[in-house]
Amino acid sequence: MTTSVNGTAAGASGTRGRPLTRRLGHLQKPGSTVSLERGDGGLAVRRSVLPSGLRVITERIPGVRSASVGLWVQVGSRDERVEVAGAAHYLEHLLFKGTANRTAAQIAEEIDAVGGELNAFTAKEHTCYYAHVLDEDLPLAMDLVCDVVFDALCEPRDFETERGVVLEEIAMRDDDPEDLLHDAFLDALLGEHALGRPVLGTEQSIGDMDRDALFGFYKKRYTLPRMVLAVAGNIDHAHVMRLVRKQIGDRLDRVGTPVAPRSGRARIPGSRKLVLHSDDTEQAHLMLGVRGLDRHDERRFALNVLNAALGGGMSSRLFQEVRERRGLAYQVYSSVGLYADAGTLSIYAGCQPDRLGDVAGVVRDVLSTVAREGLGDAEVARGKGQLRGGLVLGLEDTSSRMSRIGKGELNYGDYLSVEQTLARIDEVTAADVATLARDLLRRPVAAAVVGPYAHADDLPSQVHEVIS
Amino acid sequence: MTTSVNGTAAGASGTRGRPLTRRLGHLQKPGSTVSLERGDGGLAVRRSVLPSGLRVITERIPGVRSASVGLWVQVGSRDERVEVAGAAHYLEHLLFKGTANRTAAQIAEEIDAVGGELNAFTAKEHTCYYAHVLDEDLPLAMDLVCDVVFDALCEPRDFETERGVVLEEIAMRDDDPEDLLHDAFLDALLGEHALGRPVLGTEQSIGDMDRDALFGFYKKRYTLPRMVLAVAGNIDHAHVMRLVRKQIGDRLDRVGTPVAPRSGRARIPGSRKLVLHSDDTEQAHLMLGVRGLDRHDERRFALNVLNAALGGGMSSRLFQEVRERRGLAYQVYSSVGLYADAGTLSIYAGCQPDRLGDVAGVVRDVLSTVAREGLGDAEVARGKGQLRGGLVLGLEDTSSRMSRIGKGELNYGDYLSVEQTLARIDEVTAADVATLARDLLRRPVAAAVVGPYAHADDLPSQVHEVIS
């Protein structure tokens, strides 16, 4: 029921396993199963491709008591025409409103009765429906996720009720300066390209949305070759496959071939350099940044190291310069966005309005220094350590494990174990980081501001300088 | 570096262990160690009381790769005089600014280098300093946590820099309508009592804060008998104890007796019924509620069931009536606050300003129906299921495990295993819930609103009716 942005970590983890195959998921023979990683107690990660084109990837984690199920659909806001902006997210809401088998209330009651979580999120390039339950409730989780994704009714009455809820969600985003800022920044950086539009759509597009058009979008886009089912936890691959056959067996008769991961090179029209949202906030919120790398770019590991050392932790350049040395802001950080054919590297800071000029000036100085000199060996080593630790520590719950394998399959088709990812991070050198910084940090800068400024002219000169 | 409110779940988890003792931590013989729970591979939860009065509680979790360390101090915002409101939280910031052994930058560098997390939060009744690291980095985590808590310098220069950061945090809270609303609601409900004051303090009190007074607060309050060290993960109790002796060995020579958990009965002066923060937000944000139970009240298990069924999940009364049937709000939920000698039961909703009257009316109707009739057997059963599942699913990472044992020791001294907690939930009957609802939901209601209303008179009549 929420939206999601692409996070910073490059596709991450299992634990101590070794890779067994590099066969790509979308090229794997339909009807076959392959093992991708061996774990502590046997086969840990396995993938089956069904004749229908549905891919099923599982990770068995001994010792845990839960299971996470996610159905990933390669449909997101970038697939919408501008008139129906927000359709993918609106649809995601609507699917929970009732199916051929259950009312919305029954869906909620069944998951609440076992204390599980059933939810979904929509991003620019995919939508994910997921459940997190005790291991013994895996059949119920599979049933509920498949029910909402495959058998939703999208009744006109529910469509109208849900319009109000989606409009509320837009209003809520507008009241959260950081969320609003993020959307404004992508608007500034990516201009008219579909990636630059908010996942939620606009009040206008949601107000105009037509039920039959949305239902058509559902029937056309939600096909098995566009889907990956990911399951992680105290589970067994063969058991999951039996449940898949039970839940969507008849649909599996339709023959299909998995859709390849998105890739290419986005053509992004010229964009605005600055977007200002005038708002009567206590803090001024600034995000600035450049176009970065796409997710298939091999330099993404170096980019993640650069990001960590630049603004990823308390010891990062930006945190030390802005907050620790000068106390100018409570929060300051950088982040990376990776899309199929484009990407972003951005910096956020929130501060008192009368300090915005100083903050923008310090950020600009840091970026130009790093573009010129790269980062010190110790900083790069710390950035690598930060990614290594964060990768493993971020995979303690089954939901994170499920996301790792599901998103990885949808985005790459290629399985990368945690060990392999760690090895790729280890290979990054200070020279790689310096070369990349020299390239990226000299690209044109776009910026967005949310704060108490009526016009762009009211912004401090340093904000204008950073984008000039 | 953040503030925290008391959450909803009654002290939770371990996994399959059985309790070995009910000895209270603050009455345990100094210099002794007891085992509290046996787990899958031997002793799982153990507690030592040192001659200094420091309590150390650990949970060994086989199969994980990480460790979480938390030093819990029985000092919070309720211990502040009104003139120094925010002192506990300001101090928590200051302790990271440098110690006798490390500069602030070195502290940040050492934790970032291993990809760990080092942070702290301040609540009304306690402050917690914690680290989450790979298991092999446990000695570093213990070293860093102990260094900032015991050896901070609180230099006047850093004190001034950090004042700006804390003021930024207040401004950030003011830009987050839900956070602001929460503080306003406690102000409305608990009036002049220290529990009703914001943890962050005010611009005034932070602006006036004096370095020497804060340093005095530190030296007086941060004593070993007020502290619990909790460690969970792939760790061994004896190893932890060796590290404790190494890190704070000399301090252990001072003899002390653990301070008993807070308890009693708060005398809360009469309070305002309504607090309005006029703000130019897109949504109107409403929180209303009553004084509830203290954390020692045996009815707290029934309260958690009531809370779950009333507004805890998608199938709850409030979610169904407000969002699903009528689409009036995106978010609506209830929550429980448990303090040593007081408590709250509250309801939140965010909606378009022109729907606020309808939302308040629906909430009022739901509350009066539940006060009169209680909840159905199926709803109570679902509420119990929700708590059971949520309890176990919420304990997958070592940080949650560490919090469970640390907070439990500080708040109760009495160890409750997950199995025992589950048993207490199971015992709750629909009649218990109905009796409690009849009592609590007829208490005087206080409310807070953040939204585009200049005066209380501008609020819809239903808001005034709900508190009348």
General description of the model:
By secondary structure, chain A is α+β, with helices and mostly antiparallel strands. The first copy, chain A, folds into 2 domains: 2-253, Metalloenzyme, LuxS/M16 peptidase-like (Cytochrome Bc1 Complex, Chain A, domain 1); 274-467, Metalloenzyme, LuxS/M16 peptidase-like (Cytochrome Bc1 Complex, Chain A, domain 1), CATH 3.30.830.10. Chain A has 16 helices and 14 strands. A 9-stranded mixed β-sheet of chain A has the order 1-7-8-6-9-5-4-3-2, with helices on both faces. In chain A, strand 12 (331-338) and strand 13 (343-351) form a beta hairpin. In chain A, helix 3 runs parallel beside helix 8 (237-248), helix 9 (300-311) crosses helix 15 and helix 11 crosses helix 15 (430-440). The longest helix of chain A has 19 residues, at 156-174. The first copy, chain A, is globular, with a radius of gyration of 23 Å. The two termini of chain A are 39 Å apart. The model of chain A is unreliable at 5-17 (pLDDT under 50). The interface between A and B is large, with 80 and 80 residues. Chains A, B: Residues 55-202 form the Peptidase M16 N-terminal domain. Chains A, B: This is Putative Zn-dependent peptidase. Chains A, B: Residues 209-387 form the Peptidase M16 C-terminal domain. Chains A, B: Pfam families: Peptidase_M16, Peptidase_M16_C. Chains A, B: One of its GO terms (molecular function) is metal ion binding.
